[in-house]
Amino acid sequence: MTAARTGGRWIAHWDPEDERFWRETGERTARRNLVYSVLSEHIGFSVWTLWPVLVLFMGPEYGIDPAGKFFLIGTATLVGALVRVPYTFAVARFGGRNWTVFSALLLLAPTTAALLVMEPGTSYGTFLLVAALTGVGGGNFASSMTNINAFFPLRRKGWALGLNAGGGNIGVPVVQLAGLLVIGTAGAGHPRLLLAAYLPLILLAAVLAALRMDNLAPVRNDTGAVREALRERHTWIMAFLYVGTFGSFIGYGFAFGLVLQTQFGRTPLQAASLTFIGPLLGSLARPVGGRLADRSGGARVTLAAFVAMAAATGLVLLASVRDSLPLFLTGFTALFLLSGLGNGSTYKMIPGIFQARALARGLTGEAADASGRRLSGAAMGLIGAVGALGGLGINLVFREAFLRSGSGTAAFLTFLGFYAACCAVTWAVYLRRPAPAPGAHDPAGAEPAGPVRLGYAEV
Description:
Order of helices and strands: EHHHHHHHHHHHEHHHHHHHH
Helix content: over 70%
CATH superfamily: MFS general substrate transporter like domains
CATH topology: Growth Hormone, Chain: A
Strand content: under 5%
CATH class: Mainly Alpha
Largest sheet: 2 strands, parallel
Strand order of the largest sheet: 1-2
Number of helices: 19
């Protein structure tokens, strides 16, 4: 049952596009909610990416080969992608603050379960079940982004969404650094120390969200908007591009340490000491990508990111063939950085695209803004879920490559081809064609004719 939308933590009126409202009360409230949203999402990402770190603790005594370990982390990726859809709609049903508190407390379940079972002799099926449980941490991203999207005006969304997501993404390198600290001090036989450290942090995130965040009463689920977003081809085009950016970031974040161990023979400590750098840079780059998209247009920044990602993948492919660790680390670090930039720019594109679609249907002013917010909010959860499945795809491609050849070379060749496809789609859909003319309406959703101005290059 939906909670009553009144009381101290519910905000009845919210209009961030009104500059006076934003200046007097909106910005201060939005920034406060952003801070605690980042904290909760950060912890969620750390829990979601526990298993790429935990497999570094799993030596020969666990009896699990590299393919089995890739499947463990792939399972966590899959569940994290699937739960993003219900998490997106939970914000409107229960309130952003309320759901943030609940979803933070839910992280106690996978963390405690891993704490109990993480030892040699535990069955592979048990490990698989606990890895699946950590997927709930991946859902926190979708609810957090949907919530923050509602707080900020369109002109600030690139920065706000980039900062929110980037702060959350930093949970990936932080948990890797924490794992490195445990391995470097207590040794690879003490994974429970890492897990125990996160229990009070989860409780802290939930308490602070309860005390400092707000619910927006005007934000409600709109099944009609969901149906429209499902029928809108741009939802699926952006989901494809987000597979290339976020799918790469999370997929590489999950797989990097295991690739270093398997292909380059690094010890757990050596692997852990190298894995955090790329995800850290990628996380920090996400708000930068959003800011660049605010200034230069998300489509332009996204295309540049994909071109550079293809070049970096070529470098990684060469390093894999030559068995060159320095070259490999250089190329992989560049991939993380560029995927972070692309994450920020692609998410900035989503609200801009749907507002441009509203203008193309003849809407103006607040009506166009409201339509853009309505459809972009519905589309974000779908796009986020499909994008996260790219992480699963990366881990499955790696698993197959190592099973067949003991090397990741074939996987990198596959990724290179995919980035080339992302470049082509970004250019063809959002940069090549002129903008639809405002007011030209096509009920079927096709692009209206009549080149008047650039339509999507600026989104």
